[in-house]
Amino acid sequence: MVKRRKAWEKSNKRRNKIKRRIPREGYTAYRNDRRTLGRGVFILVHNDIITVEQTELVTNCEIEWVKIQLKGKKELLIGSFYMPQRNMKCVEELEKSLNMTIARNTNIMLTGDFNCPDINWETSTVNSNANDKEIQNKIMKLTATFQLTQIHELPTRENNLLDLVFTTNPSKNAPCRHIRS
């Protein structure tokens, strides 16, 4: 399974290079595109995995959800989220989306670019000199409220951990791998 925020590039050469790295044959793409030029999010799932798009969980932010029903197990909701700039509206829309998942009594995996470089996930704190500290504290509060554990540990841009992977069941997850495009 691949989660990615999509990039719109002015150069066709660059766009084609990115497209070649993303497998298409034998996969289903679930997308939530911006209504303007630019990014959006998608989840790419191999056709051997039975999934259903969960459009009712999508709120007014860049988020996409799919459900995987595992035989004899709880369903698994996979979400892909992107916050281009830190703003409270995106965080509030994410919270609305997560609230809708609670009633399902399910496992959740939420991935995405949260653009919150000042959060220390080992100590669950926000750096005291952080820009937009209120927003980053709200992200921390959401992870506690929804019992989400952040499991991705590799920096994604310079020394910053921006691409995050949250789960409600960290013991059931394989290690994360970041592939640069």
From TrEMBL:
Residues 77-174 form the Endonuclease/exonuclease/phosphatase domain. Pfam families: Exo_endo_phos_2. Gene3D superfamilies: Endonuclease/exonuclease/phosphatase. One of its GO terms (molecular function) is catalytic activity. It comes from the Eukaryota. This is Endonuclease/exonuclease/phosphatase domain-containing protein. It comes from Mytilus coruscus.
